[in-house]
Amino acid sequence: xxxxxxxxxxxxxxxxxxxxxxxxxxxxxxxxxxxxxxxxxxxxxxxxxxxxxxxxxxxxxxxxxxxxxxxxxxxxxxxxxxxxxxxxxxxxxxxxxxxxxxxxxxxxxxxxxxxxxxxxxxxxxxxxxxxxxxxxxxxxxxxxxxxxxxxxxxxxxxxxxxxxxxxxxxxxxxxxxxxxxxxxxxxxxxxxxxxxxxxxxxxxxxxxxxxxxxxxxxxxxxxxxxxxxxxxxxxxxxxxxxxxxxxxxxxxxxxxxxxxxxxxxxxxxxxxxxxxxxxxxxxxxxxxxxxxxxxxxxxxxxxxxxxxxxxxxxxxxxxxxxxxxxxxxxxxxxxxxxxxxxxxxxxxxxxxxxxxxxxxxxxxxxxxxxxxxx
Length: 374
Fold this sequence. Notes:
The chain has helices at 7-18, 72-80, 134-144, 199-209, 262-272, 324-332, and strands at 2-6, 32-38, 41-47, 51-58, 61-62, 66-71, 86-92, 97-102, 105-110, 128-133, 159-164, 169-174, 178-184, 193-198, 215-220, 224-229, 232-237, 256-261, 282-288, 291-298, 303-310, 312-314, 318-323, 338-343, 350-354, 361-367. The protein is α+β, with helices and mostly antiparallel strands. The longest helix is centred in the N-terminal third of the chain and has 12 residues, at 7-18. The protein starts with a strand and ends in a 7-residue tail after the last strand.
């Protein structure tokens, strides 16, 4: 079997798919890419046993169809350094040999039997379906993935929760200390449905969607999800279990409102945070009309810092503590130029929202306070 394709096109697809493959696999065949040639198209698959990603690219030429598996380290290194040029594959499936001819040289290596590659588990015809714009999904994954947990005892917290209702599609992530909830009002259903997407497939999807346009079709049941995007598909096993009632932890009445330039606040946090205790990373926010004071200290090392920022604040004078790194993460994952921080009192969660919401969306981020030692 012979076929020809672009070196850079092949390399870019392999680089994206390589993130699926684990360093240690339960089956040796999972260290390989599966190549399938049919109708002058090449489908390449990578799997770790729970997540399977497939991408398809057009071939310049192909004389027949066939399937074979290629060791991922070999093919990745072979094409990584090649400049743009045609690659001519000559594959003997019966002998499991591969020869790649390029402009100034030739590679020879061994293929693996494609029949050993595990089949992808189908979602089925009874699957529930969500269709959304690729850039919208990419934005939401970028916005939420940092807030997922790493809790072995509560695995449901380790993924991104998709909650489809008659009001809209809420995409939620939380580690118990911070929470992100983004409602998309254009996507709704009278028949409620939900699933928890693990962090790894969410990261894989985030990386490929940034380059793609068009619609994404999400098909899911109780155990698996199939996500179809431009020139590719991702199948993943879902996290099973009941996600906590995220709406119940969001305060309904936080009357004290701080409005401030987002980048100015991030800059001040970065300057003050190095002087905080390394273990707690606590930052004190002292609020009064027209003024925000950020301060930190580390008693063990006799260090402290304080910075004042002008702001728009309406509410009671108060001091509240937050984990500086978490507050910085939240601010870095909001797109608007300014943000509103809504507070009730120093013991209750703070809500951070963009001053200008994305179109047809409601983005909200929550951060739990830290007890201040006065």
